[in-house]
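User: tokens in, sequence out, please.
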């Protein structure tokens, strides 16, 4: 559920917007405020995903509220509400990175169109956050950028180095790596888990997907080509593994990378 804060000094507008929001799947009104000061206090508590803010409110107007909101809830998306189409207000709103504005009286049709766009932006942001968390966790697991691997035994260092050289081979296996470094498969499996905190198969999967994510930002590379270069025997297998780890397909990930200007 995406949380919503509505700030407007007119009761009828607050109630109307609340009614509109409640008809939209995936959104929940978490706060109603009739002036900018109350709205700011609510925002500190709720950290709303989305704010509808009237420009003209007592004690603190909408644009001043939005300016202060960036300090207490920087990820909140704001839409301004105004009774007149004043270019000066809209200019300042755009400088504050307001996503859009609604003119009073607000029609449900305009509201629905706006919410479709906002839903896409919020979905994109959530996906981006999930991806960032996965990448940070994976960098830690793969020790990317870290030169000091003294915590690992020589066998595990050798195993990891071998995998990094041969991850593109779809037939790469634990037994092959174990044979290459002259230990048994069960021994390598056990030691790998003990020393790295990750299973051997998970390590290969993370490495392959990390390499694939880098390649997906290049539109000239076809997804099937990336799959084979990263050690997957088919595009279907690659897509299944990618979606299981990142909750989106490689094609959707590529679109999200290319649409960063959307937010």
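Assistant: Sequence out:
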């Amino acid at each position: 559920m995406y949380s919503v804060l509505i700030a407007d000094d007119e009761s009828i507008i607050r109630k109307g917007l609340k009614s509109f929001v409640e008809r939209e799947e995936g959104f929940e009104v978490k706060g109603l405020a009739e002036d900018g000061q109350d709205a700011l206090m609510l925002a500190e508590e709720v950290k709303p995903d989305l704010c509808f803010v009237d420009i003209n409110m007592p004690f603190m107007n909408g644009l001043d509220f939005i300016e202060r909101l960036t300090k207490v809830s920087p990820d909140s998306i704001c839409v301004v509400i105004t009774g007149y189409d004043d270019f000066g207000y809209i200019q300042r709103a755009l400088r504050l990175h307001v996503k859009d504005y609604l003119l009073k009286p607000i029609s449900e049709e305009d509201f629905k169109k706006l919410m479709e766009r906002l839903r896409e932006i919020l979905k994109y942001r959530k996906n981006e956050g999930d991806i960032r968390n996965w990448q940070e966790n994976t960098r830690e697991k793969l020790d990317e950028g870290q030169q000091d691997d003294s915590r690992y035994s020589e066998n595990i260092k050798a195993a990891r180095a071998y995998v990094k050289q041969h991850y593109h081979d779809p037939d790469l296996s634990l037994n092959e790596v174990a044979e290459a470094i002259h230990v048994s498969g069960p021994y390598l499996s056990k030691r790998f888990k003990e020393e790295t905190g990750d299973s051997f198969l998970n390590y290969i999967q993370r490495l392959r997907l990390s390499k694939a994510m880098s390649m997906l930002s290049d539109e000239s590379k076809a997804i099937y080509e990336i799959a084979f270069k990263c050690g997957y025997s088919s595009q279907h297998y690659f897509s299944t593994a990618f979606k299981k780890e990142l909750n989106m397909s490689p094609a959707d990930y590529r679109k999200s990378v290319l649409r960063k200007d959307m937010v």
